[in-house]
Amino acid sequence: MTRAFNFSAGPATLPESVLRQAQAEMLDWNGVGASIVEISHRSQDFIAVAAEAEADLRQLVGIPDDYAVLFLSGGATTHQALLALNFAAPGQVVDYVVTGHWGKTAIKQAKPYCTVNIAADGEAGGFHDIPPRDSWKLTPGAAYVHITANETIHGVEFRDTPDVGEVPLFADFSSSIASEPLDVSKYGVIYAGAQKNLGPVGVAVVIIRKDLFERSGQPRADIFDYRSHAARDSMLNTPPTWNWYLAGLVFKWMLAEGGVGEFARRNALKSSLVYDAIDASGGFYRNEVVPAVRSRMNIPFFLPDETLTSRFVAESKAAGLLALKGHKAVGGIRASLYNALPVEGAQALVDFMRDFQQRNG
Ligand SMILES: *Cc1c(COP(=O)(O)O)cnc(C)c1O
Asked: Given phi > 0 = left and psi -120 to 50 = alpha, else beta, which region is 320?
């Protein structure tokens, strides 16, 4: 068996040791005589797993006690709608800062429930930069300001938390949570689908400053109410137990590897290896994002033409470098360098890139 280096944008690569542990525990978890996917979410056994995953995530990310942590299904996109339902009054203005594809998705999901103000939009510039903070047209009294911390498709990442004053800042951290130290206290809500940097698809993490639960939001079913989920420890209905367990194993792995400080170091190293290879290629490889906001997690880049792009995708796959084809919205190549992608993976990609250019440049 050989495991390739997997550059998939999501669902993405997981640590081999986590997969091995899950494999070893598949038929008989913790001596209970059944798989963890076969036992009740209300059992003491599962409740302990769930609580431990939450405690480990709190330690890993540094989540203060005045924040609730929810483990819910639905993916990040569902929460883009639920945020408006829970925290904006009917018709209330919400400010969106759009720096790529997922910011647009966030607006689409929230629009039925609030008045969307696009406070800043990088689309006219092809999403190659983040509009400067002093150009944002924020609304006094907005329900919240929404940003996408890392744009997974366009490869644009906030490198600082923007100051938006009194209005709570809500951020989609799906593709960069736990990739470096984060000051959670600067945010009202942080949410992330797990399948990029935290674990398997099927569970999302929603981190909510508890005072926001006092907002009445809008008429909604109980199952769409974050307060109800929080009151029932994310077990208002049957939670995605397998995904929660597997994410918990990933949290333990990240803590054992040295925590977010160590992943910040590795991610900076991996991304600079790839960006340096692009920038040193004399224009053979091209990344169009302004260097100050280049993503450390997802690197889209382009070759001179479609023929070379297709050849690059096919030959890299044959060389054991998986899923480098770019997202159809932007084309080209995309290398995702999440926490579980080792430094050797980035080095192997860079070696391949140099060799490919020598043969085709
Ligand atoms: C993948 C992704 C999403 C969508 O997540 P789903 O779980 O598929 O809903 C949203 N935002 C960002 C930044 C993403 O990377």
From this structure: left
Q: What does each C-alpha distance from 234 to 67, 225, 305, 312 come to in angstroms? A: 14, 11, 48, 44
Q: Choose the residue to mutate in 102, 151, 191 for probing ligand 1, maximizing ligand atoms within 8 Å of C-beta.
A: 102
In order of their start, the domains of the chain are 17-256 (3.40.640.10), 258-360 (3.90.1150.10)
| pTM exceeds 0.90 | yes
Cα–Cα distance for residue pair 111/107, rounded to 1 Å: 6
CA distance 267 to 337: 7
Q: What is the pLDDT of residues 260-280, one digit of tens each?
A: 999 999 999 999 999 999 999
Tell me how far apart the alpha carbons of residues 247 and 198 are, in angstroms, rounded to a whole number: 6
Decide if 47 contacts 159 (C-beta within 8 A): no
Q: Is 91 exposed, middle or buried (0-12, 13-18, 19+ CB in 10 A)?
A: exposed
E strand residue ranges, 77-188: 93-98, 115-121, 145-148, 150-151, 156-157, 169-172
352 has a pLDDT exceeding 90: yes
Q: Is the CB of 148 under 6 A from ligand 1?
A: yes
- Verify whether ligand 1 is closer than 6 Å to residue 146 (CB atom): no
Sign of dihedral through CA atoms 98, 101, 106, 107? positive
Residue 1 has pLDDT above 90, yes or no: no
Return d(Cα 299, Cα 345) in angstroms, integer: 14
Q: Which residue has the tokens 């629009």?
A: 111
Q: Are 103 and 151 in contact (CB under 8 A)?
A: yes
pLDDT band at 2 (very low <50, low <70, confident <90, very high): confident
| Cβ of residue 77 lying under 6 Å from some atom of ligand 1 | yes
Active-site pick, 95, 172, 270, 325? 172
